[in-house]
């Protein structure tokens, strides 16, 4: 009988930890696992907040200027219980800003990046644990400063999350461009600093602290994705910082970088902003791609198909991501020749994403699919990401973009890649790694209920946006009903809004499952999913320094269903002890307990 | 069965001979390069798109600042000498060259401040023209980075005088040097595109 | 777009055709990918006693789908060039086209016409009532688009026309209306609290009716 055995390991002697206070253990911790959970909880809070803003947006679009029973008094008390015209741009601005900078980026890179990187590479912690602590605590003032915008005169920033000038540069142009916009700038500068610290930490950790035998091409895709994402963060975020500083100076000191009245250029803002913000969208999707790859491979019980092409595709997406920014600016007044240049690079960037999709499909082919909640969400990631990506091809086709730019086609596109892509990826990741984080299992049945409700409602809300876009419905419009060409769209908008309410309520199932399981979930085994990567080779949750003995790695993380192994999985830190024949699986293999 | 193996002595992790801290330092410097790249790109675009731009040699004191550039370059040389000193175990070379670097850095800042005050007296402010706005922003952020570098140099110099560095362990000196050279290179670029072109 | 709303300009059909081409290509990809996904979900569900196929990849497959996709994308890139060039990189002859000034501000559209001297930006320019743009049918029109304050965007869905109005720059946009009628203008770039009500009308009429309009605008 050939079984995999753990072989030579390095034994480290755990010194008995000095007794830590509550503050040291849970508030100002330098343990990457704690910091990861801090990011997780704050991100989830902002997910709810951003989602509620979305509900307000959808309600206005369905019933413009109507008083919302109950809620209207609470939210719009200052404007006669109904939405004020200047508040709508503020709503869309804050929805986008919060979802991007306070939810998706922090949960993917901050929560999962922090929690998983040391564990999956076999390290005790990040390279710089105190820098890690700082990176979370730079976010905290950012939270408060951004939220303070709701309480200042003129309200929050209201020039879109894209903050185009001159609307964002001149306080008179919209009320939010007063104090609110300044707070927005300051908050995002802190967020950017936090991200940079995290990026330096992640890149260094992955390069320097891999366990023995963990060659770069034995890293799980989750790590490759987080690693490449960190490089994007490192190189792109500072350009946003420079743009924010210039905008800040125009607003407060009287410079005219972006203001034509003083010789400045309006479009310069867009170039600087999108130079960061296009890589930012890859920052928002690559980690989800990596995690989906690992989850799909695990639950298909098959090696990831095309590991190296998958890695190189992530590199290609990241690299090309730096030269496509102008596709947000085709109609901006930028030289149309540049339009053709950016169109070309944008078409090219569709290729590595397509390659990844085919590899995910090929991973499923011939598999033994276990349709758990994480797997279903990972598959939803693939299916909706495909729609998001395909809808992007229309926008890349510059003549078509003339029509669909700044319409609901784009809103549909971004939500298919961000909600469909990143968020289903998050749902998968949360449910997959919950046992490792918290030592308990979430309910798979309620996970499936959440999945079905969310998947159906999501498509009902966002697919019609392509229809709205094809009709020409512009973005960020508080009320489209006085336009003849748009008035017929109200019933569709109402249908979408009702679906959005269902979508929002469905998240209660996930949150209920999450918090209930946190306290009353079934205790989790080390490796409940019978997965191969190193985080499953330690307890759930891991001890303070992750591993009792530093792991040694013998092969990649995708040795599922190897004919040389009795079980259909082979952890990275287990070697084969000589050539053996495939035997039928033993009952012991099903429990998920390690062979030794 | 897991076999216990005698652990290897814990060495500082390295990659291609680079220590963890130095590796991270290079990443930090890369991000700083991108920050200045954003500002410089904005400057180039704004200047190229401006129908009028002052004749720089008439508004700015090019010879003085060229001299200041030379001072900064010399300070990089003294920094190199400081590092070479401690690599050879020569504490006094380390200390003297660190002192020189710090002093030159402070002189650089002083001359920059003088240049700014002269310009302000002539009425050239950040608000008065795009030239002013870009000039003060570029040189200002560079100056801030030099100031940070000088603060770092003070700490490193004080530590050197307390014999805090040895031939075996002087990583902080190397990191200080890398940062200082970065600030110098950025200045050479800025000087070229703001003063010379 | 794609026939959902009326097409009333000369380059509109080319844009709609481009949309349909992309729609066909992406639909094929969509059906293929989602179809396979659903099929695999059913076909390869875990069954007791069975084992998954242990395969790490296939160089041949990678090559095939990379080359195939690249070819499709390249074709698309090449195919769209002429239409983009026609709409955004060429202008009708300014001596025969009607040149109109259009200025966007918070929150309306202000059109001006050359007066008797035949030139814009002179003292005898004619000013249309706010939010109305009069044009003759079947004649090339060049709009010199400007903004007085913040970014706006001149969007006429039924002409398949969109161009951002940028403060500090005058951007020339052209179109040729193929039908008479009233066609709505919507602002397509967030410009403040009144962005949603920045509605205008392009009124396309016969040459005679158009000339009569201009005559009405002239000072008596």
Question: Can you offer a commentary on this structure?
Answer:
The complex is a heterotrimer of chains A (596), B (197) and C (220). Chain A has 16 helices and 4 strands. Chain A has 596 residues and is mainly alpha-helical. Chain A has a single domain (27-591), classed as Cytochrome C Oxidase, Chain A. The longest helix of chain A has 35 residues, at 87-121. By secondary structure, chain B is mainly alpha-helical. Chain B has a two-stranded antiparallel sheet with strand order 2-3. Chain C has a 5-stranded mixed sheet with strand order 3-2-1-5-8, with no helix packed on it. In chain C, strands 4-10-9-6-7 form a 5-stranded mixed sheet. In chain C, a hairpin with a 4-residue loop joins strand 6 and strand 7. At the A-C interface, helix 4, helix 8, helix 9, helix 10 and helix 11 of A face helix 1, helix 2, strand 7 and strand 9 of C.
Which properties best describe this structure?
heterotrimer; A: 596 residues; mainly alpha; Cytochrome C Oxidase, Chain A; two-stranded antiparallel ribbon; 16 helices; 60% helix; globular; C: 220 residues; alpha+beta; Helix Hairpins; Immunoglobulin-like; 5-stranded mixed beta sheet; 10 strands; 26% strand; elongated
Question: Topology, pairings included?
Answer:
The complex is a heterotrimer of chains A (596), B (197) and C (220).
Chain A lengths: L3 E2 L3 E3 L10 H6 L4 H31 L8 H5 L11 H35 L7 H20 L30 H30 L12 H32 L13 H35 L6 H14 L15 H29 L8 H24 L1 H7 L3 H31 L5 H19 L1 H8 L18 H31 L28 E2 L24 E2 L20
Antiparallel strand pairs in A: 1-4, 2-3
Chain B lengths: L3 E2 L8 E2 L2 E2 H29 L7 H4 L2 H26 L3 H31 L8 H32 L9 H26 L1
Antiparallel strand pairs in B: 2-3
Chain C lengths: L11 H32 L15 H31 L8 E8 L2 E6 L12 E2 L4 E5 L3 E8 L4 E5 L4 E5 L5 E6 L4 E7 L12 E6 L1 H11 L3
Helix pairs in contact in C: 1-2
